[in-house]
Structure formats: structure tokens, C-alpha cells
Amino acid sequence: MKLKRVIIMCNVVLILSGGVDSTTLLYDLVDQGYNVYALGFNYGQKHVKELEYAKKTCKKLNVNFKVINLENLGEIMYSSLTSDEEDIPEGHYESESMKSTVVPNRNMVMLAIATSYACTLKAESLFYGAHAGDHCVPGNELVFTNIGKKLMSELQINDLVLSNDFNAKKISFKRVVKKISNGIRNDIFKITTKAGRSFKVTGNHRIFQIKRYDFDRHTGWEKELIETYAKDIKPDDWLLAPASDRMLLENGKHKTELVDLLNYCDLNHSQLQYDNDNIWFKKNNKVCRFVSKESFIRLLSWYITEGSKSTKYRYNANTYRVGIPQSKIKNPLYYDEIINTVREWGFNVCESSDTIFFSGPTTKVFELCGNISRNKQIPNEFLLYDIHTLFDTLIKGDGHISSERSYQYVTNSLKLKEQVSWLSIILGNSVGVNITTNSCYGISIRNSFKKKINKFGECRMVQVKTVEKCNSTEVFDIEVEDNHNFFIGTGSGVLVSNSIYPDCRPEFVEKMKDVIKICDYHPLDLVVPYLHVDKAEIIRKGIILEVDYSMTWTCYSGKQKACGKCGSCMERLEAFEYNNIKDPVEYLM
């Protein structure tokens, strides 16, 4: 793609580090026609190599670039990023050790200098590339209210929030009648393998572990497999993973997960049956108790009907059959409305003792309900990539988080709870937190599955590199009037995490905007466009802009090749992996 550079709109200043985020933002601004003045800072960081890449990128794009020398700051501001006495810690940002990488008030210092530069140039805006992956994720998620978006933690009783009523034909604002804040009882663990795969699960998530790694591949697998909990996994343990993972890795794609207890349950052609108290899962003529409560069938039928309207599918799709006995639905108007809606939209309806809805594919784009999309009140589509995860989790009874699409489904006292953290629209309750094994139903792996692994050789071993607890502390559950606790927002639950980079938080950005306005030397806007965007989305945007990521640098270690082990490297690698492309930067490991 050729960058536009046709119309020079105005002067803007960009703080450019030479990393993925600010470099993508530079390409973005140039593409929009801005006359960019880039400003870099040498504060004595070990990874000063990133400034060399920033200079090369600016030369390529014909952008003015200056570097401000602040090397002496290292004498008064201690950090492992600047100190020769301390090594850069390894591991993800969630780790406590990564706090040593904080350079106190670094961003405030850089923004203050950049503000002076922008005022001198009479620039219209000052751009700053902080983003969600830098732990500027807000402590709360946003919900839609009658006066605009609002943090969930700020919601008060009697506030009006945008809510969907299953018994109505369109969304409306509902009054908040209850607000609950819970502490998280079950820790969430992030398990990363030495091959680079990672996934998040609750501590009671059951996984296949291998006792020894030197057994005979063809005869000893069944005896070597043990069922264990994620919380008991340790570094250097060996776990089971699909053999196809190796092939996908060679093709630059990472789609498969480690083998858990239900990987060999083929749910695609299984039947769900609903009665007054329970939903049943039927597989190979064996019926297992699944989960209770009518709220689940309502949510599922919503996705299948209103969530699938007018969708064009690219691939042949497996279907789920969901039975809803008419006699068990308490509200007959709701039942009739579902029937009429399904028929109107061209879905197959079979009325006998049950009403059977045939869904579309489980891994494609689903359009939201017609009322909303036609009126363009909110974006008209959302992604439903992993309903398979939902079924898995309801059977396991824990808080599985999909490693592919950040979906999280958990059961809490047999009630379905859901969180889709990165969507702008969601329908569902907040994430469940008080999870106990006794309150959930599980299913044990059968010997036939283990024998199947032996027979077809479908799995291989992976060695665990790190096991880390995610730093989540609090969740909010909002209930609105009419006994209806569904609302629409950017997240149905709030996982509050303590940022290790205080000057990357949204509240810091807002305060800096106020400070700049108070100075009033020159009208200047502080713009942080990627504040609520994670690194994977930034790279996706960069791919469209044809950003040369080989001329970006992320590693904190100060070595000639990226270490691949520090938090910055790991976040970058995961973002490229998420987009199914290879990082062009060379790594030591």
C-alpha cells in the first residue's frame, strides 16, 4: 500500500520510541495526511536501539525526527531499564517482578517536553502511543448509559443503562436496581509452554499431564497420562498437545490448544435437550447432566436466532440442535416470538414436542439483531468465535478462557455467566467469580478417548515454561429493573488489575489533558488513539498500513538480538501469533 501524503492537513507532534505501537501510529498519521514532527527520548534505557529504528523509519517516510537526550535522568530515576546493576526480569507483565521496569514518571516527563515542542511549532495535536497492552486497561469496563459511556464501577442505583429485553423487540434503557462487587475466589493461571503457546484457565481446570517424557510413544501413552489441575502445574512439567500444533506452527499459524479433558468430545453433532430444571448433553447415546437455569437457553436461543440474521457463511458449518419444549417456557409470548422470528429469517423450525432451531456456524461473524443494525444505533455485528468453549466449560464447571479470542465462560452455582472482554457490544451477565467444584457438574475422560490418542498418535508433548497468576482482584455485577440483568457495554464484567505502569493509565491521560489546557500557551489536544486497543489490534492495523515491523524494536534487554523472554518481547510475540504472521525481528530463542 502506498501512503497517501497528498494533502498536508496540519502539524502534529508524535512521541516516537521506535516500538510497534508508536511506529504504527506514525504510519497511521502519515497515511491520514498529517505533517508529523516525531520526537524521541534517550533517557539512558538499555534498549536505546529502538531509537535507531525510529530514525530509519522517519527517514523512509520523510518525517522530521529529533531525539532529546535525557541520559542523566538515570542517575535520579531508578529502573531495571536504565540500571547496569539489575537484569531485565523475564516473564509476562502480570508478574510482580516486572514492576522493576517502571521508570518513575517517565511519560509525564516526555509529555511535558513534547508539549513545549508542540506549542513552539503551533501544532494542532500531540500524539502519544500508550495502549491497553501497556497496562492502561481501565480498572473497569464501559457500559452504555443514557448520557454516554460510563465506567461500570461508577454506575449508581437509578442510573439508566442500555439493556436488551428478551421479551421485547428492541433494546431500551433500564434503571439499575442493584450493584454487586465480588472478590475473585479462584485465581486465573496463565500457562506458557517452551514452544510459545499460552492459555489462561482457572485453577481447577483439568488438563492432561504426562508423568515422564521418555516413554514409548506407541505403547505407553495411556499409562503415562494423569488428570491434574492447572493450579498444580509447574515449570518443566510435560503436558499433552495436539500433534497438528506442530504442523500449524510451521505454517506460521497457532490455532490449537493444549489437550484438556474434553478435546476429544466432538460436540459439533451433539444434541442439547432442555427441561424445567436442567439442560442435558447427549453424546453417543450417553446423557450427562449439563447445567441448569432457563437463562442459558434464552441466551443460546438469542445467539442462534437474532444473532444469526442474514449471515453469509464462507465455509460449511457444523450445526447445533437446541430443543426448547413449549410446555416448559413460562412466557408463551416469548415462545411465539421466537418461532415467528426464526421463520421470518428463514431458519428451519420443526414443531413437534420440541422446537428445534438449527444454528449457523460456530466460528463466523454473526450479525446483531435487526432493530439495532438497521437503525445504526450501535455497531451492527459482533464476533462469536468460540461457542465450543462455552459447552466445554459448562461441562467442566470452571472458568475456561479461550486462548484464541479472549472469550471467558464460567458457571457459578449452575448459572451461566459470560464475559467477552474485547467486544464493543455484548449481551450477557457479568463474569462469575464464586466458583466451587461442588456447585458445578463435570465429566470424566473415558478410556476410549485415551485409547484413541494411542491409536491415532494425534498428540505430542509440550514442556511448560512458566505458570503465572493473573492479577485480577474484583468483578462487578449490575442488575437492572424488571428482574433483568442483561445490559450492553464493552464488557459484561470488570476484572480490575493494578497497572505496573501508573503513567499509562487512562486517568493519567485525562489529568495530563487538563494540565495542558490549564497552561493555555497554545490550544493543543493530547491524543492517545490506541489507549483502549491491545497490541494484537495495533499490529492488525499496521498490516493494513504495510508497516515495516522489521524496523521496530521492543526488547528491553539491550542485546543485539531480541531476547524473547522479557515481558515486552513476550507481549509482542503473542500479538504477532494472534494475527497468524511471523515477527520479522530475529530472536535469540
From TrEMBL:
<dbReference type="GO" id="GO:0005524">
    <property type="term" value="F:ATP binding"/>
</dbReference>
<keyword id="KW-0862">Zinc</keyword>
<feature type="domain" description="Hint">
    <location>
        <begin position="456"/>
        <end position="504"/>
    </location>
</feature>
<keyword id="KW-0068">Autocatalytic cleavage</keyword>
<keyword id="KW-0067">ATP-binding</keyword>
<comment type="similarity">
    <text>Belongs to the QueC family.</text>
</comment>
<keyword id="KW-0547">Nucleotide-binding</keyword>
<dbReference type="InterPro" id="IPR036844">
    <property type="entry name" value="Hint_dom_sf"/>
</dbReference>
<dbReference type="InterPro" id="IPR003586">
    <property type="entry name" value="Hint_dom_C"/>
</dbReference>
<dbReference type="GO" id="GO:0016874">
    <property type="term" value="F:ligase activity"/>
</dbReference>
<dbReference type="InterPro" id="IPR018317">
    <property type="entry name" value="QueC"/>
</dbReference>
<dbReference type="Pfam" id="PF14890">
    <property type="entry name" value="Intein_splicing"/>
</dbReference>
<dbReference type="InterPro" id="IPR030934">
    <property type="entry name" value="Intein_C"/>
</dbReference>
<feature type="domain" description="Hint">
    <location>
        <begin position="134"/>
        <end position="243"/>
    </location>
</feature>
<comment type="pathway">
    <text>Purine metabolism; 7-cyano-7-deazaguanine biosynthesis.</text>
</comment>
<dbReference type="InterPro" id="IPR027434">
    <property type="entry name" value="Homing_endonucl"/>
</dbReference>
<dbReference type="Pfam" id="PF06508">
    <property type="entry name" value="QueC"/>
</dbReference>
<keyword id="KW-0651">Protein splicing</keyword>
<dbReference type="GO" id="GO:0016539">
    <property type="term" value="P:intein-mediated protein splicing"/>
</dbReference>
<dbReference type="GO" id="GO:0046872">
    <property type="term" value="F:metal ion binding"/>
</dbReference>
<protein>
    <recommendedName>
        <fullName>7-cyano-7-deazaguanine synthase</fullName>
        <ecNumber>6.3.4.20</ecNumber>
    </recommendedName>
</protein>
<dbReference type="InterPro" id="IPR006141">
    <property type="entry name" value="Intein_N"/>
</dbReference>
<dbReference type="InterPro" id="IPR006142">
    <property type="entry name" value="INTEIN"/>
</dbReference>
<keyword id="KW-0436">Ligase</keyword>
<dbReference type="InterPro" id="IPR014729">
    <property type="entry name" value="Rossmann-like_a/b/a_fold"/>
</dbReference>
<keyword id="KW-0479">Metal-binding</keyword>
<dbReference type="InterPro" id="IPR003587">
    <property type="entry name" value="Hint_dom_N"/>
</dbReference>
